[in-house]
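Memo to structure team: turn this sequence into structure tokens by end of day. - J.P.
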Amino acid sequence: MTLLAACAPGKNDTDDDSSTSSSTSSASTADPTESTDATDPTDATESTESTDATGTTEPPSTTTSNPTEPPPETTGTTGSEADEFGFICVELAKAESEESDPFAGTDTIYLTLELDPCLNEFYQTHPEYVDGPEGTAVLEEWRGRLCSETVAPGLVSCEVDHFETNMGEGVPTQFTVAYKVLDAAQIDGRTLLWGPAPLAELAGCEPKARLTTPFGVQGFPENGGPLWSAQSWENPVGLVKSEANGCIKVHVAKQ
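Reply from structure team:
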């Protein structure tokens, strides 16, 4: 089945033939026969905390928080602490063989990754994230986040145009993100975030996706065929997470 969310007229038809798509701390009791120095009654017991921030509704202990202090900064994501979805980062750079900037004139970038078995199984067993309201809500949220997350200082200046998911029997599932480029002069050496996809806790395994063909990353002008595509790439398999590290690195050349 195929999900097309927030669709705009696509240019992906020029792609290749591959389908698009707890630790609870143990409480200890001081033995009065073991020490004669402890006179503070508060030393006899230890507080027990839950390390699962999302599994309790109890307010934080007043002995460890100050209401006048600002809330702690989040790391790796600008979303809520309960994020269940993340991304894979992809770095774009001009190939050494290119004398001029291959990104000049780029209006739209299509980034397609092939899902590894973990993600395939997740979506097969959770169809609500494929063509249900849950999936639509996730896509709409991340449509506004993929180009604005603060996890990478050098994101490509962009807006997410639409997503394409292609799932079919006997063919690898692929997921495509189409980005509208806002400044073609600032693509080289910058990063795109591909997603969203479930993080390991939700997926129940290591969620990965990979770049498999040169046409998995393509840039198009406002009108016409592709300007550039991947010439080579490093670290082709990406792990879905909330930090922009361990990125897939793509070297781009004109077509």
